TrEMBL record:
Keywords from the UniProt entry: 2Fe-2S, Iron, Iron-sulfur, Metal-binding
Protein name: (2Fe-2S)-binding protein
Pfam families: Rieske
MF terms in GO: 2 iron, 2 sulfur cluster binding; metal ion binding; monooxygenase activity; oxidoreductase activity, acting on paired donors, with incorporation or reduction of molecular oxygen
Amino acid sequence: MNAIIIDDVAPLLEEIEGRTWWRACSAGAVPDDEGLKLGTLPPAAVFTQDDRFFCLDDTCTHDTYSLAEGWVEDGTVECTLHLAKFDLRTGAPLRPPATAPVAVHPVTVVDGAVYVALPTTYLIKEETA
Ligand code: FES
């Protein structure tokens, strides 16, 4: 698997206890107002809106549906299965039927690549793009 960070980028990324920075994808791989599911376990996804990037767990907390398939607008992502809505910055549920937040993860862009700091317990199955 080729998703580990490269040495010249590592000094630019703040160390966060219990997390490891991974190169998730190129910034251009995430269409504006959409999500990109990453090859991690549990699944995480990168979202972008107005040139800002967000990383959340991909699975809706109401049921097991991919939030990367959802609609992104006004700083939120809406699950397409039953229309729960989550805050992209905090993961807080903003509309039922979801009542539990989704986990959010630090994200940054360096030299056109998106890096996410995932818990060390997450498995990286494959590089996305
Ligand atoms: S699975 Fe997302 S709202 Fe039901």
